[in-house]
Amino acid sequence: MLPGTIDAICEDYRAAATIDLVHDRESRASGRRITAPAAVLWGAKGKVGGWYDVAAIWRLYAEDLRLAEPVPSGHYLAEEAPEAVLDAFGRFFG
Question: Of 60, 77, 53, which is closest to residue 88 (Cα–Cα)?
């Protein structure tokens, strides 16, 4: 692991539970959305797809959701299903 990687990961999780929530609420309240083409992948073996309509949720955030699909993996998509992730990237970035 690179020096500082653990610190960066911890900061990312800390932000997700604190300031990211504030920023997310501010963005939604102001009507701001992602304007760039977007792709969303999630693990088909995980819980997210069963708990939520992932594509519908991301359509609330992204104006141009071009790809939204599960890949045959759990939480760690790129590690568990690298070929599926690369295939999705190839289709998205074309």
Answer: 77
3-state secondary structure 54-92: HHHHHHHHECCEEEEEEECCCCCHHHHCHHHHHHHHHHH
Contact 43, 75 (CB under 8 A): yes
Residue 22 belongs to domain spanning:
1-32
C-beta separation of 55 from 61 below 8 A: no
Same structural domain, 26 and 56: no
pLDDT, tens digit (0-9, with 9 covering 90-100), for 30-84: 999 999 999 999 999 999 999 999 999 999 999 999 999 999 999 999 999 999 9
Q: How is residue 35 written in tokens? A: 């304007």
Radius of gyration of the chain (CA): 15
